[in-house]
Write a structure and sequence with these properties.
By secondary structure, the chain is mainly α. Helices cover about 65% and strands about 5% of the residues. The longest helix has 23 residues, at about 80-100. It has two domains: about 5-60, no CATH class; about 80-175, no CATH class. Helix 7 crosses helix 8 (about 170-175). It has a two-stranded antiparallel ribbon with strand order 1-2.
Length: about 180
């Protein structure tokens, strides 16, 4: 039994037809079950990626190296990569603070993130993504060095203000974010 569903998707003729769809995880599980030599390359790749992930769990620095290599392959400069990684650490410290001070992950994190973003950039996260032509992509992965620096500075400042004020809950953290 697979976890496949049917959705009406547009076809080449412009009409919508019921089409089998599945998550990436389900598709990879299906590939694993195919007893064909043609599926062997993907099975070997899955085993390799799984092994690499296990190594990264044992030594998290390996995942940082992989991220750095991937960004280099995408043409990012060493300076951009360093700023992105520093910004991620700043973000993690902020979200850790929020989690420890009664801010709920998901919607409340998004509200506070949007306030911070609006304050430094003058536009919402959604508007900024739209300006860059992004839909489901990670905005930070498409920011310039300056945007990464401003974001990290805004998030660092927010955390420091929230710590000083011992901000607890969404409303107190909204004040710190502003």
């Amino acid at each position: 039994m697979t976890n496949c569903h049917q959705l009406k998707l547009p076809a080449a003729d412009g009409k919508k037809y019921l089409t089998d769809v599945a998550t990436a995880e389900t598709l990879l599980r299906l590939v694993q079950s195919i007893p064909s030599p043609k599926a062997e390359l993907i099975k070997v790749w899955l085993a390799k990626v799984g092994y690499e992930r296990m190594q990264e769990m044992a030594d998290p620095a390996l995942s940082l190296n992989r991220a750095r290599e991937t960004w280099q392959q995408h043409g990012r400069s060493d300076k951009w990569i360093q700023q992105r990684m520093t910004g991620q650490e700043t973000r993690n410290k902020l979200t850790d603070f929020w989690a420890e001070h009664d801010v709920k992950k998901g919607a409340e994190f998004a509200i506070l993130t949007n306030i911070i973003h609006q304050e430094w950039s003058g536009v919402s996260v959604k508007a900024h993504k739209s300006m860059k032509g992004l839909q489901e992509h990670n905005l930070r992965a498409h920011m310039s060095e300056a945007e990464l620096i401003f974001t990290a500075l805004a998030e660092l400042s927010t955390r420091q203000i929230a710590e000083t004020d011992d901000a607890t809950g969404l409303s107190a953290n909204k004040v710190a974010a502003t």
